[in-house]
Amino acid sequence: MVNSIKRVAKIYKMTCSGWGGCVLSGTRMRNSRAIDILLNLLRVGLGLFFLVTGILKIGDLGQTADFLTRSDLLPEFFSMPLTCIGVAMELVIAVCLVFRLSYRGAAVWGVVMTGVFLFLYAQAWARGLSLSCNCMGSTHEIVNYPQDTGVRLLLLGAMLLLVWDSRRLATASARKPRKFDFSDA
Question: What span, in angstroms and rounded, lies between the C-alpha atoms of 177 and 32?
Fold first, then answer.
C-alpha cells in the first residue's frame, strides 16, 4: 500500500498545502490555470472598460453632473464636485486593475462605485424619473430601466468576482504550497 502511494505521488508530482489539502497536477491544475487566465482577462477587460468610460466622461462632465442633479438625491451644487471625484476614481480604478496595482483596493472601490450607480438607477426607476445618462461612453435616454439595471447588476457581479479573486491571490501568496517529493524513500 505504501509503495503504491509513493508511486502515485511520484507520477503525479503531488502538491500539498497546509490549508487546501493535496492536489494532483492533472486536470484540477489545468482548470486552475484556465480560471486564472479567465480572471486575468476579466480584470484587464474591466480595467479597460473603466478607463474608456472615464476618458469619455471627461469630455462631457456637465452631462454626468446633470444626471446626478436630475436624480434629486443631493443639492445641485454637489453634482459637479461629485462628478469630478467619480471620474477621477474611475480612472484610478482602471489603472490599478490593468496593472494589478493595489488590486484588492481597486476591486473594492469598483464594487462601491458600481453599487452607487446601481442605487441611482434603482431609485430613479422606483420613483418613475426620466433620466438620460452619460454612462458607459454614450449619452442615452434611459427607457428600459430593467435592462440598464441588469447590465449594472452584471457589472457588480463581475466586480465582486474580482474582489474574491484578489482575496484568493492574497491568501495563496501568504501560504505557499509545499511540494512533497517521495523519491528519497
Answer: 14
Q: Which three cell numbers stand for residue 99?
A: 496593472
Long-range contacts of 109-115 (CB under 8 A, 24+ apart): 110/46, 110/50, 110/159, 110/162, 111/156, 111/159, 111/160, 111/163, 113/86, 113/89, 114/152, 114/155, 114/156, 114/159, 115/156
Rounded distance between C-alpha atoms, residue 113 and residue 108, angstroms: 9
Give the predicted TM-score (pTM) of the model: 0.73
Pair type for strands 21-23 and 15-17: antiparallel
Give backbone dihedrals phi and psi of 177, rounded to 5 degrees, phi first: -70, 145
CA distances for 35 relative to 29, 38, 71, 155, 165, angstroms: 10, 5, 39, 19, 10
- Give, in degrees to the nearest 5, the angle at Cα 62 between 58 and 67: 105
C-alpha–C-alpha distance, residues 51 and 44, integer Å: 10
Point out which residues pair with 138 in neighbouring strands.
Answer: 135
Q: Phi, psi at residue 23, to the nearest 5°?
A: -130, 130
Give the range among 3-12, 42-51, 139-148, 157-166 with minimum mean pLDDT. Answer: 3-12
